[in-house]
Amino acid sequence: MKRTLAALWAALSSRALAPLVIGFFFALYIGIAFFTDETLTVLIALTGRNRMLAAVLALLPLNFACRMVVEATGYLKRRRALSRAAAALEPALYDETVELAAAPVFAGLPERLSAAGYRTRVSGELLAAWRGVSLSPARLVFLATACCLFAGILVSLVGRSVTRQPVIEGELFPSPSGTGGLVQRIIFQKSFGYFLAKDLVMEVAATGPDGGSKELGVYPPNLVGGAFVYPRYLGVALTCKFTAPDLPGGFEHSDIFAIYPPGKEAQLAVKGSPYKITLTLEKPQDGSDPYMTGQLAIHFKLVKGSDLVLEGSVPKGGEFARDGFRLAIPEARRMVLTDFVVDYGVLLIWGAGLLLLVAVFVWLPVRLFFPRREMLFQGGGGTVRACSHAEGGAREHAGVFHEVLDVLAGKQPDSPVS
Amino acid sequence: MPALKLLPQLLAWTALAAVLLRGCTERRRLSAAACAAGFAAGVLGIALLARSLPATPYGVVRSLLGGSFLVLWVVSVVALYRSTGKGRPAARSAGLTGRPLAAGSLSFFFALTAGGVCACRLPAAGGDLLPLLAPLILVLAGLALLIGALALERRLPASLTVSFPGLLAALVALLLFSSASLLRLDLFSPLSMKVMKGTHDFVHQFMESILIPDHIFVRPAIWGYIGFLFGKEVGFWGGMVIWFTPVLLVLLALRFELLPQVSHIRQGALRRKLLAAAMRERNLRMVIPGLSLAVFAAAAYQSCYPSVEYWDPKPVLVSADAAGEILIPKKGEINLEDGKLHKYLYRQGGHEARFFVLLTPTGKLSVDLDACAICKPDGYGQAEGTVICYYCKTLIPLDTVGKPGGCNPVPLAFSEKADAVHINGVTLMNEWTRTVQSTTKKEGGK
């Protein structure tokens, strides 16, 4: 059992596991590409639905989590060895280990090592020397980044649910956990940020006794009832009244139309008749944005079969009448077609982004300017066991290490024990 | 002239044989025999296949090329992984090409593929009646060049060794260089196209995944940068990254190889001597993969600037009749059934749409937009057995023209009468507008 667990741990914390899993998905991607052009979409759908594939993907965050444990353990063990807290040196933690048949006489060595820029500690039969800053914390952050990223992807693939709902001024907010408060106003305005050119704010009145209203913006998306509010398209909620000489009973219809920006068309079929109305948002002559100003005027084309019967413009609350035809728009309100996304993987992916920034900002200067170099010399039983480890500047470090070994060997040249 | 056209392939074959022999020095004779057998099998196999199934040889050889490139990727990743570990990989992988089975099968496979590529270059490779004389002459030429490669390899300095990943990099580079001048075997252009599509999908999915707002909210400058990710430049540079990365990984793996442990030696001069020798040997092992980089670059260049002239007629202006029908006569000034691509331009209400008519090898006429559903509408040209999308350089076999999907030209509904082809002008304009809108980023377009 112990052996099985050790093998399992070795496999889960192996450096090879992540490239293997990524390679597997890459091979799957290539395989899917032979059958469809929507390769990524199919791969995403397949992984989300198939538990086996999801389990394979889950190996990635698990592997990075296990490697964090290995990295942290190694870091702590090396620190303990330097501070004499460890009983014996572990060769696996170092790049190079050698045993010399020599007495552990360290006199003069700390000075020599200090001159080479190393800090030293001598305690009994142990000489520890080190310089620079360890990359282990940065590596830990990097592993945490990868862990969060792949965990986020996994959570997103398996558990993401999206509901698209229109948010309309003057109507109840369609919160996924039931209806929310009244949408008091939808504000679309210029933004002066670095990223957004236009800002969208949906003011929603509170439903509870606490009072106050919520302002839901574009980015970062707000969380409402456990779902992220992700505005997608802008449009107008219209009520149309139409009568024609051959349609005396008239036709009244309320619907939403994603007709922003001005010029984007939507079509409305008049039920039980050969008429079709093509609607667009009219661009004001002063160049202003009708969605921002709220002055919504609708340009329409009335088509019977394939013949254009009428074309004109109707302002909000107005009507157009000619030759027995009448089109009125008694109501036009701003509408935002919004996705309600239940997906906590997003938080993990954002977190991974932040962690990556931290890891890069720590790793780069440390690796370039203060790479960690360590060497340990431990005496016992007539031999000295020496270990060396370098995270950068390895050639220079090896030179100093060999020089110290030469000094330790003293008058016993070419006398290796192993 | 055919012999001249085969020059790059034969040169690549000679270099490939020499590199193989150098890589399998312990099994030189076996490797040479496998090379000879593989080359002959490749040429004759593809020649025979071309006689029975004219379109198949290209697919087979392309699969072999693609497969070997994928294997190179795997081997290079493994090499880097092993060299950055605690072990000393040089010692572990050195014996692989010394094993008879490995040396023989490696030599046979690469010689087979090289022979296949050369056979595809033969003038009648795609035709029905392939004279067997040409393949036989090619086999003899290949064997003569193999003897030359043997002589050349013996003259190379003994210190110029190559690791297994380095050997594989060189072999794949030479194969890709050899195939890059054949439109239907070229891998770089389709790779760029796949990268472009993959990047497009990835960016789209990524933006939706982390809930980034749509273009109506984002600053045009920022959206411009995002839009850059949808262009063919990303396909090209992404393709370059995928193309060169395996060789770079092999070089990095060699560079990161741990030097021999010398801590137990108490003589500084001896230590330095050993380390210097190890570094010199390592540097020499980097020569062949280093040269492979140049061969990969040459293959990519050949792919980007092929010495092929496309048939690309100027679009003929057509108009619709009162019923909105465009009539294109089958015979007359233009013969629609001559197997050539015929382009037309239709204008209406300030808009215009391009389309072409083509008789496919199946004997049926096909009417398609001069645009596909993925790329910007740069149009198509016709080369031997294919049409090419000018934007992403993807080759579409003529027998698949008229089928929707991928980078195929978007097919149009039409009716074929005895004397003419009839196309509905409104359908054509709507289809063109829809296709162009979905492939071109426009303000407000979605």
Structure description:
The complex is a heterodimer of chains A (418) and B (446). Chain A has 418 residues and is of the alpha+beta class. Helices cover 35% and strands 34% of the residues of chain A. Among the domains of chain A are: 87 residues, TATA-Binding Protein; 74 residues, no CATH class; 105 residues. Chain A has nine helices and 18 strands. The longest helix of chain A has 32 residues. With 446 residues, chain B is an alpha+beta fold. In chain B, the strands form three sheets. In chain B, strands 1-3-4-5-9 form a five-stranded mixed beta sheet. Chain B folds into two domains: 266 residues, no CATH class; 124 residues, 3-layer Sandwich (Rieske Iron-sulfur Protein), CATH 2.102.10. The C terminus of chain B is likely disordered. Chain B is flat. The chains are: A alpha+beta (418), B alpha+beta (446).
Give the topology, please.
The complex is a heterodimer of chains A (418) and B (446).
Chain A: H1 2-12, H2 17-33, H3 39-49, H4 51-82, E1 96-100, H5 109-115, E2 119-123, E3 126-131, H6 136-159, E4 161-168, E5 183-190, E6 198-205, E7 213-216, E8 223-224, E9 227-244, E10 247-257, E11 266-269, E12 275-281, H7 290-293, E13 297-304, E14 307-315, E15 319-322, E16 325-342, H8 345-369, E17 373-380, E18 383-390, H9 394-409
Antiparallel strand pairs in A: 1-18, 2-3, 3-17, 4-16, 5-6, 6-7, 8-9, 9-10, 9-16, 11-12, 12-13, 13-14, 15-16, 17-18
Helix pairs in contact in A: 2-3, 2-4, 3-4, 3-6, 4-6, 6-8
Chain B: H1 2-5, H2 7-23, H3 28-52, H4 56-83, H5 89-93, H6 100-121, H7 133-155, H8 164-180, H9 188-209, H10 220-228, H11 232-256, H12 268-285, H13 287-304, E1 316-318, E2 325-329, E3 342-348, E4 351-359, E5 365-372, E6 380-383, E7 386-389, E8 395-397, E9 409-411, E10 415-416, E11 420-424, H14 425-439
Parallel strand pairs in B: 1-3
Antiparallel strand pairs in B: 2-11, 3-4, 4-5, 5-9, 6-7, 7-8, 10-11
Helix pairs in contact in B: 2-3, 2-6, 2-7, 2-8, 3-6, 3-7, 4-6, 4-8, 4-11, 6-8, 8-13, 9-11, 11-13
